[in-house]
Write a structure and sequence with these properties.
Elements (H helix, E strand, L loop, with lengths): L4 E6 L2 E6 L7 E3 L2 H17 L15
Antiparallel strand pairs: 1-2, 2-3
């Protein structure tokens, strides 16, 4: 599966978050490292309903 992310390079590090979980930033030494961390976050957040995790999603307005 694919999921939207936001990221930026800052002082040689990469910082980013999953679009569905914008309060939970992670960082990597390079872009590939950041992608691994983001993938791990996605797997962790998707497997169960964790308390205190704020999720953002779009809904249909009829």
């Amino acid at each position: 599966p694919s999921i939207g992310v936001h990221y930026k390079e800052l002082d040689g590090k990469y910082l980013g978050y999953l679009n569905d979980y914008p309060d939970h930033w992670t960082q990597g030494e390079n872009l590939e490292d950041l992608k691994e961390h983001l993938s791990d976050l996605y797997k962790e957040f998707s497997k169960s309903d964790l308390p205190g995790i704020k999720k953002v999603e779009e809904i249909e307005i009829g």
